[in-house]
Amino acid sequence: MIRRALISVFDKTGIVEFAKGLNESGIEILSTGGTARKLKDSGIDVVDVSDYTGFPEMMDGRVKTLHPKIHGGLLALRDNEKHMHEAEKNNIKMIDIVVVNLYPFKETVKKNLSFEETIEMIDIGGPSMIRSASKNFKDVIVVIDPEDYLWILEEIKLGHDISIEKRKSLAKKVFEKTSIYDAEISSYMTEETLPGSYSISYPKKQNLRYGENPYQDAAFYIDENVIEPCVGNAEQLHGKGLSYNNIMDTDGALEIIKEFDETCAVVIKHANPSGAAVSDKIEDALIKAFNADSLSAFGCVIAMNRICNKECAEFLSDKFIEVVIAPGYDDEAFEILSKKKNRRLLKLPSLNDNLLHDNKEKVTTKKVVGGILVQTRNFPTIDINKLEIINNKEPTKEDISRLTQKAKDGILDEFICVTKKEPTEAEIKDMIFAMKVCKHVKSNSVLYAKNLVTVGIGAGQMSRVDATIIATRKSTGKSENAVMVSDAFFPFRDGVDEAAKSGISAIIQPGGSIRDKEVIQAANEHGITMLFTGTRLFKH
Fold first, then answer.
1. Active-site entry in 12, 106, 166, 270
2. pLDDT by residue for the chain (540 residues), tens digit each?
3. Quick one: which of 277, 353, 426, 474 has the fewest CB in 10 Å?
4. What is the homologous superfamily of the domain 212-220+229-357 according to CATH?
């Protein structure tokens, strides 16, 4: 039987109606602070917690519910004679239902308050009460979600007890919530990029039809604190629900377009780009990216970093596209693209200014059986205007190590030209473009680019020469005078020899192989420019 409720909520949605219903059912209500005032102002009988405990609120409200008469009423086992005897002896009354929601810490963080002001918003009493109630869920109903008010009130009014299964489910909600809450605080207070322990706790956004394959169950969980534009905070405007593979591919496409301030479009298929392009107009970038490998683009995901316009939509209208994601769509574009009911259209938050550049997540994670891998995320920025090409036909290990350390420090301002032939300005621009795309191609990988468009991509091969052969085949004759980027050094000269057959004019790669001299010699024999960066681009 429910005799007494304790109500203390930050989010007061629906609380007056819920409390009135409890009152009408003969349930005594204990409350605190602003909640108590709101309920009293609404004509509801309320007992202040301070009057019940005989202990005043103090220390600016820090201490009010942290009292044995509160937690004893929550934790006492009703079927335990010792517990009930001790409760009676100490004048502790049973609290049968707790209605509490917490100060929204993540929203506080977003306000950019001082450290002291932010810490002050950490809820102590709320989590303590709901954890106590949840531990004793057989005897105490714990409610943290306004969505649960209606059905609980209906059960009470009908004189029904809340089943043990439902009580357990309500308690489970609490521990999910407090784990997320604690992770938010821990993340805020952690200054190290790679701390001594790593906590993640994401709420579920949606169940998915299935995972990578139909026999796998799947769901999408998101980090609600992330400000950076991403698939998790994108708004779906049209089409059927996203699949597991859609989400993976959309994420991959976004990571590439975020590399570019220039107008850019990317086509992704099975976690790899099939085409990417930079141009003055978004429709030109889209057409070039799609046509870079139109065969692979069947059933693809497309990302753009500019508004999708009518010209883009007309180009895509008769093509099989799983997902389009962009900062927005003009009216004509949306009308054209939405004619296919299943085509998913997603709108990104702003890709401009500080929202993108100053609020990126610092690390990426990958789950493996029995653990989680965490690594720093950001790729060093390259400013072509500050880039220096150093002529050094025989770079030492120390030279390569220097470049590698610079990349680790976020600086790419120096490449080493190791061949007789030096790069042109156009080749340098193409190589930088190619590096930005290649870092998102599964290893081993090579990528051909020309005029800021990918013309051939060889992805995910066990040997670099096989990746080169695939890139050549994908280029379908468009690789003459194109540049080539390799995500890691060439272990043998065979990759260079294959690239020469396709007409590649310049190669950019990390360097650092024991066979560098042999590889450089091959480039010189074929009249190919070669630059060393010291920067490996592996993606596993």
1. 270
2. 788 999 999 889 899 999 999 988 889 999 888 888 999 999 888 888 888 887 777 677 677 777 888 889 899 998 898 998 988 899 889 999 999 988 887 777 777 778 888 888 787 888 888 999 999 999 999 999 999 999 999 888 888 888 999 999 999 999 988 888 888 888 778 877 788 887 777 888 999 999 999 999 999 999 877 888 999 999 999 999 999 999 999 999 999 999 999 999 999 999 999 999 999 999 999 999 999 999 999 999 999 999 999 999 999 999 999 999 999 999 999 999 999 999 999 999 877 654 555 567 888 888 899 998 988 887 787 878 888 999 988 899 999 999 999 888 888 889 999 999 999 999 999 999 999 999 999 999 999 999 999 999 999 999 999 999 999 999 998 999 999 999 999 999 999 999 999 999 999 999 999 999 999 999 999 999 999 999 999 998
3. 353
4. AICAR transformylase, duplication domain (3.40.140.20)
The reply to whether 388-532 shares the fold of 212-220+229-357 is: yes
Whether the CB-CB separation of 488 and 314 falls below 8 Å is answered with: no
- Is residue 19 within 8 A of residue 7, CB to CB? The reply is yes
From the number of C-beta atoms within 10 Å of its C-beta (0-12, 13-18, 19+), residue 27 rates as: middle
- Of the candidates 539, 457, 459, the residue with the CA atom closest to the CA atom of residue 502: 457
Quick one: which H or E segment has residue 393? none
Domain boundaries, the chain: 4-189, 212-220+229-357, 388-532
Task: Give the architecture (CATH level 2) of 388-532.
Answer: 3-Layer(aba) Sandwich (3.40)
Q: How many residues in the chain?
A: 540
**Rounded Cα distance, 101 and 264, in Å:** 44
- pTM for this predicted structure: 0.81
CB 538 within 8 A of CB 488: yes
Contacts of 46 (CB under 8 A, 6+ apart): 29, 30, 31, 36, 39, 40
Judge whether 135 counts as a catalytic residue: yes
Choose, from 93, 135, 166, 340, the residue flagged as catalytic. 135
What's the 3-state SS for 454-516?
Answer: EEEEECCCCCHHHHHHHHHHHHCCCCCCCEEEECCCCCCCHHHHHHHHCCCCEEEECCCCCCH
Q: Give the 3-state secondary structure of 239-273.
A: CCCCCHHHHHHHHHHHHHHCCCCCCEEEEEECCEE
Let me know: does 269 contact 296? Beta carbons within 8 Å: yes
Concatenated DSSP letters for 200-236? ----EEEEES-SSSTTS-EEEE--TT--S--TTTPEE
Element containing residue 294 per DSSP (H, E): none
Task: Give the domain 4-189 fold.
Answer: Rossmann fold (3.40.50)
